[in-house]
Write a structure and sequence with these properties.
GO biological process, one term: 'de novo' AMP biosynthetic process
Pathway: Purine metabolism; AMP biosynthesis via de novo pathway; AMP from IMP: step 1/2
Keywords: Cytoplasm, GTP-binding, Ligase, Magnesium, Metal-binding, Nucleotide-binding, Purine biosynthesis
Number of strands: 18
CATH topology of the largest domain: Adenylosuccinate Synthetase, Chain A, domain 1
Structural class: alpha/beta
CATH architecture of the largest domain: 3-Layer(aba) Sandwich
Radius of gyration: 22 Å
Strand order of the largest sheet: 7-6-5-2-8-1-9-13-17-18
Bound molecules: guanosine-5'-diphosphate, 6-O-phosphoryl inosine monophosphate, magnesium ion
Number of helices: 12
Cofactor: Mg(2+)
Order of helices and strands: EHEEEEHEHHHHEHEHEEHEEHEEEHEHEE
Distance between the termini: 5 Å
Protein name: Adenylosuccinate synthetase
């Protein structure tokens, strides 16, 4: 298999960063294809922690080409800061190792302001709990055909025209929300100032990736967020503003769908969610608290406590279908160590009717109650296990039951945040 897409199969934070970093050893190019710096991907290598938002997780390994595709929305000021931070940690980033698609839309300061103003103005039950980083408004401008894109930074006249077009939309909107009009001159000056720091990385990514593909190089696509935050298939409207599912990998960089050979879904051994919205297996008891504490479930981007609950096989079975998942990477199994009993949601009860999928209507989603199956836990530690032989029998039973219920095999198993604490079952890159 030449090209592998990694996607989150729940509500994000499944451990994509760790797995992308681990798999990047086998790849030549690592490409982000959607989302923005709302993503928070944590890598732990020999005890050293790296936190990435916009940069692909392959940058840390060195010697690979990292790509930010057109499907991403990019905050240039944040990127420059992130590059500086990661460089300080000893990682080298140059225009030879990082490329940004010229047609990538920019996140401007006005997008973050709008995002936060809307959230503040939202009444109870309508707040989304966004990261406040301007992701939604930036994608709105992209489809509204008024985005400033990376290539526009190269020519002052074009840049000014693009800014004016955007402000025609934003100023009236801001007035309605009680925010002062945009300082046009200051925004243009800010963009002109950041331009020389971004432009060296700008490239025709679609063309470069095509050349790489033809030369037999292996491309690893790094998804952000999770399939249940997908703008079409997620728990709308409590979702992010991009397509998250695997099909987006092709449009998000400009390759044909036939170039995707394997889809690896990243699946956490239990369920978490940051922000608002339905969550059928959410636990508000000691078990939920225990999952949060053992799993260190705090958001990387906003520091918010993640909501925790039992594994929901119904949801993952569904997201494996919408992303065409070939195999999963099952992560954070070690967090379940020491539970006497584990529960898995196998179906929902909706007004006395049994459903084997999550209905699309928000009010029905909210009324779905989980139907659980119970499995015995294990008292032994799985932390740091590097082979199946190291796993207790009940942990293996749990994994096998998950495979059956989601109708998808486990390709990788992760047992700690450390890069090497990973069990390989089937190599996604193997022919
Ligand atoms: P991502 O957004 O999908 O990349 O996931 P995050 O990095 O936001 O959250 C996953 C967290 O779990 C990070 O702090 C990882 O270091 C950590 N992690 C990843 N895999 C494992 C694992 O198998 N066990 C444990 N205990 N932690 C893990
Ligand atoms: P990674 O890549 C978890 C959530 C936010 C909010 C909703 C919309 O680390 O898995 P947005 O700022 O995107 O408009 O917020 O989506 N969200 C994430 N939750 N992991 C993420 O990324 C997320 N990115 C966005 O909490 O509920
Ligand atoms: Mg994360």
């Amino acid at each position: 298999m030449a090209n592998v897409v990694v996607v989150g199969a729940q509500w994000g934070d499944e451990g994509k960063g760790k797995i992308v970093d681990w798999l990047s050893e086998r790849a030549d190019v690592i490409a982000r294809f959607q989302g923005g710096h709302n993503a928070g991907h944590t890598l732990v290598i020999d005890g050293k922690v790296y936190k990435l938002n916009a940069l692909p997780s392959g940058v840390v390994r060195g010697g690979k080409l990292s790509v930010i595709g057109n499907g991403v929305v990019l905050d240039p000021w944040h990127l420059v800061k992130e590059i500086a931070q990661i460089t300080e940690q000893g990682v080298s980033i140059t225009p030879e190792t990082l490329m940004i698609a010229e047609n990538t839309p920019l996140i401007l300061p006005i997008h973050g302001e709008l995002d936060r103003a809307r959230e503040e103005a939202a009444s109870k039950g309508t707040k989304i709990g966004t990261t406040g980083r301007g992701i939604g408004p930036a994608y709105e401008d992209k489809v509204g055909r008024r985005a400033v894109r990376v290539a526009d930074l190269a020519d002052e006249e074009t840049l000014i025209a693009r800014v004016d077009r955007a402000l025609q939309h934003h100023d009236p909107l801001r007035r309605g929300l009680g925010i002062e009009a945009v300082d046009r001159e200051a925004l243009i000056a800010q963009l002109m100032e950041i331009a020389p720091q971004i432009l060296p990385y700008a490239a025709p990514v679609w063309k470069v990736l095509n050349e790489q593909r033809r030369a037999g190089k292996r491309i690893l696509f790094e998804g952000a967020q999770g399939a249940l935050l997908d703008i079409d298939f997620g728990t709308y409207p409590f979702v992010t503003s991009s397509n998250v599912i695997a099909g987006q990998a092709a449009t998000g960089v400009g390759i044909g769908p036939g170039s995707i050979d394997y889809v690896l879904g990243i699946v956490k051994a239990y369920t978490t969610r940051v922000g608002e919205g339905p969550f059928p297996t959410e636990l508000q008891d000691a078990d939920g608290q225990r999952l949060g504490e053992r799993g260190h479930e705090f958001g990387t981007v906003t520091g918010r406590q993640r909501r925790c609950g039992w594994f929901d096989a119904c949801l993952v079975r569904q997201t494996c279908v919408t992303s065409g998942v070939n195999g999963i990477s099952f992560t954070k199994l070690d967090v379940l160590d020491g539970f006497e009993t584990l529960k898995i949601c196998v179906a929902y009860d909706l007004d006395g009717k049994r459903l084997d999928y999550l209905p699309i209507a928000a009010e029905e989603q909210a009324r779905c109650t989980p139907v659980y199956e119970e499995l015995p836990g294990w008292s032994e530690s799985t932390e740091g296990a590097r082979s199946w032989a190291d796993l207790p029998a009940n942990a293996i039973k749990y994994v096998r039951r998950v495979e059956e219920l989601i109708d998808c095999p486990v390709a990788l198993l992760s047992t700690s945040p450390e890069r090497e604490d990973t069990i390989l079952v089937t190599d996604p890159f193997a022919d």
